[in-house]
């Protein structure tokens, strides 16, 4: 994100923001960077109550864009709160993709790819069959628990197929970090306790136009 801001981006979109606190800590507010939070209207109302209850003040740089990814146009939801479709933007989309349908994932990526010089960072998980037998049962159990809470995993992607999807939607630069790369970059000495193999991925994709 910092690199995009240094390059002139002044719009940051947090998709499925939930209780994410970046907007409250925005170190780029003095540069005119606006943070658009996209989530369900009910979730945003709950969050705003939590902010107020914590004695915090919503910064002027924070803009809420209530949206249902499955039924509403992201373009319309953002446009009506002041997002400029013709200006560059950075999209943060973490902890959301597995809970959306493939159609919602594709339409969101298509929208992002149509924003000039857009960059998106998101995470995803691989299909159960990609895991070795000794790990597969545990992953399925985690997914079943999520489903029992009303949050089933709806979209899982094979890395090569996801790369094809991104290319088809117009992304030109794609960096896909698998579990090995994530642990090497982020975990330091803790990586010795992590089993490397199929698992979560973090992607950074961008368009040049």
Provide a descriptive summary of the structure in words.
- The chain is built from eight helices and seven strands, in the order H-E-H-E-H-E-H-E-H-E-H-H-E-H-E.
- It is an alpha/beta fold and 209 residues long.
- It has one domain (2-206): Rossmann fold, CATH 3.40.50.
- The mean pLDDT is 91.
- The protein has a seven-stranded mixed β-sheet with strand order 3-2-1-4-5-7-6.
- Helices cover 35% and strands 19% of the residues.
- The protein has helices at residues 2-6, 22-25, 41-53, 74-79, 102-113, 133-148, 159-168, 179-186, and strands at residues 11-15, 34-39, 62-66, 90-93, 119-125, 173-177, 200-206.
- The relative contact order is 0.13.
List the helices and strands and how they pair.
Layout: H1 2-6, E1 11-15, H2 22-25, E2 34-39, H3 41-53, E3 62-66, H4 74-79, E4 90-93, H5 102-113, E5 119-125, H6 133-148, H7 159-168, E6 173-177, H8 179-186, E7 200-206
